[in-house]
Amino acid sequence: MNLNLLVIRTSNPELLKTQYEKIGFKFDYHQHGKGPYHYACEYNGFVFEIYPLTKSMTKADGNLRLGFDISNLSSVIDRLRGTDWIIKSDIKKTEWGIIAVIQDLDGRKIELKNK
């Protein structure tokens, strides 16, 4: 089984899109039918989308934890220093590999694992 779709919601999709581009995502802006405009990135059969909050939501779910395998982890972390990303845990070797944990503007923790 492989994960093929992940949708996160935020009060400021443009700002969050810009933040995630700093770790390597490239988004398109589009709409499905009469649904809301949103940002989507597709890579190797995996679709990552950033949608605005629904009318019934007052804030984004900051408890969701995400994980992405990336190339050049040390270069990415160096680029993120001094940006709007919070580095929660710097690069370290673990039993699961070499990882760092960052936090997005909505409070989601993202585990970046070196490929």
Short description:
The chain is mainly β.
Characterization of this structure:
It is a single chain. The protein has 115 residues and is mainly beta. It has one domain: 2,3-Dihydroxybiphenyl 1,2-Dioxygenase, domain 1, CATH 3.10.180.10. 15% of the residues lie in helices and 43% in strands. The protein contains two helices and eight strands, in the order E-H-E-E-E-E-H-E-E-E. The protein has helices spanning 13-21, 73-80, and strands at 5-10, 28-30, 38-43, 46-52, 65-70, 86-94, 97-103, 109-114. The strands form two sheets. Strands 1-4-3-2 form a four-stranded mixed β-sheet, with helices on one face. The chain has a four-stranded mixed β-sheet with strand order 5-8-7-6. It is globular and about 45 Å long.
Features:
115 residues; mainly beta; 2,3-Dihydroxybiphenyl 1,2-Dioxygenase, domain 1; 4-stranded mixed beta sheet; 2 helices
The Rg value, from CA coordinates, equals 14 Å
The SSE order reads: EHEEEEHEEE
Q: First CA to last CA: what distance?
A: 20 Å
**What is the number of domains?**
1
List segments where confidence is low: pLDDT < 50 over at least 5 consecutive residues: none
Number of helices: 2
* Helical content (DSSP H or I, runs of 4+): 10-25%
| Overall number of strands | 8
Text of the CATH class: Alpha Beta
